[in-house]
Predict the structure.
Amino acid sequence: QVQLVESGGGSVQSGGSLTLSCAASGFVFSLYGARWYRQAPGKEGVLVAQISSTGAGTSYADSVKGRFTISRDNFKKTVQLQMESLSPEDTGVYYCYSWFGSQQYWGQGTQVTVSS
């Protein structure tokens, strides 16, 4: 069964840090690129960070550059998002997404709430 399961969300104060993790199963994760999206209440989802299948290539939304780091461990089949210097604008549900060609999978999301 294909699954992407996020964990690590929670509530923090502005300036705090969180690390999200996404565990993949049921497919050859090492072939798939991975992304983290954020959906804030009442807003469309935005791409926060992306990493290539090998981990060699990463990209970030301008709003998180220098604060967030995406990484992956293909042996453990996980992708992480390390978030630092969090602000209330980072609040939302964070979704893990993985794709290879036309195959794409989504996690169920994990809530991140940053209070001022």
Notes: The chain has no helices and eleven strands. The mean pLDDT is 97. The CA atoms of residues 72 and 79 lie 4 Å apart. The radius of gyration is 13 Å.
